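Re-run with default settings, no changes from the original entry. Doing this only to confirm the output is reproducible before filing.
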Amino acid sequence: MSRRRSARVGETAPDEPRCGCRLLDGPVEQSALERFCAVLAEHDVEFIVVGGQAETLMGSARVTYDVDLCYRRTPDNLERLAAALGSLSLTLRLGYLEPIGTYEDLLPHAETLDIAGRPTRVIGLDDLIRIKRYLGRPKDRESLLQLEAIKRLREQEGLG
């Protein structure tokens, strides 16, 4: 009768788990949103995060990979924005955020959240809900259900 030996793939050090898994004790890579906000903050750009990233920051399960911003359109801020974006390959859309308006219109209701250790303005939940209602696309209607549920939870917890 012959005995078969089981082969191990890769040897583990005595202090590593036997499953072959390694602990995630190293630095965690920043998200695209965190890196982007850091670049803007380093250039003192005045901006508010809006759109799908704002939904995610509010607690929605929506997955999105783009970053939508509303920024103050003063000559100084536009110069800082241009300097910040100088080395990045991004599409910048100028315009009015329907149905609310400009940065100045969003600012009074904006929330400040911590993104990568920096205080960052994010569109207020009520304004985000108003935009989703206005747009009415299928993805916006789906988002609206989640955002309204988040609003109800906040109100129940006395945060609304």
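Residues 34 and 117 are 9 Å apart (CA to CA). Residues 32-124 form one domain.
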